[in-house]
Specification:
189 residues; alpha+beta; 3-stranded antiparallel β-sheet; 22% strand
Length: 189
């Protein structure tokens, strides 16, 4: 391992290496130079503007009552993952992280010692930013999904439904209704 800061940039869909640096600021300066060179001043200004907007958004839940957490459906909980929506485990910090999507942007709520605290604050954020209706709907949907299992034991085997060749992307299934789940290394129908 190099034990250095690495700068890289995405140009026309390809990740390009800029260099390795002794400190973070040198790497950031060269990254900004590369953005300017390959994408122009407008892209540089937009990147700075977006970062400022995101960093100034802090979720204050002090005025929101405690809410019960939103459980994931049993079929969606992977080994080592949270049992609750909006919560992930951060190995680097050894803590649970809560985050919420607001107006298409992922917003950080906080880091927590235990999963339940993170889930409760996620539910509080849903209540604050999306209302009681959204909170009820999220809980309802989880209950419906966890009890909905398709039983195909009484259905004879059928040939798969092929996608048209123009709709098949590299690495994707050739069949309608089938996707590959990288985390599980399995096909999902």
């Amino acid at each position: 391992q190099r034990n250095k800061w690495k700068a890289q940039i995405n140009i026309e869909g390809k990740q390009r290496h800029i260099g390795y640096y002794e400190n973070e600021e040198e790497a950031a300066i060269d990254y900004a130079r590369a953005v300017f060179k390959f994408k122009g001043q407008g892209a540089l200004d937009k990147a700075r503007e977006t970062k400022e907007e995101n960093s100034s958004f802090i979720i204050d839940l002090s005025d929101v009552p405690t809410q019960p957490p939103i459980s994931k459906s049993a079929s969606r909980v992977k080994e080592g993952a949270s049992r609750y929506t909006g919560v992930t485990f951060q190995k680097q910090r050894n803590k649970w992280k809560a985050q919420i999507n607001i107006e298409g942007k992922q917003r950080h709520i906080g880091y927590y010692e235990n999963e339940e605290e993170a889930a409760i604050d996620y539910a509080r954020a849903v209540f604050k930013f999306k209302g009681q209706g959204a909170l009820d709907k999220a809980r309802e949907t989880k209950e419906e999904n966890s009890s909905f299992i398709i039983d195909l034991s009484d259905v004879p085997t059928q040939p798969p439904i092929s996608k048209s060749a123009s709709r098949v992307k590299e690495g994707a299934s050739r069949y309608t209704g089938v996707t590959f789940q990288k985390q599980r290394n399995k096909w999902k129908a």
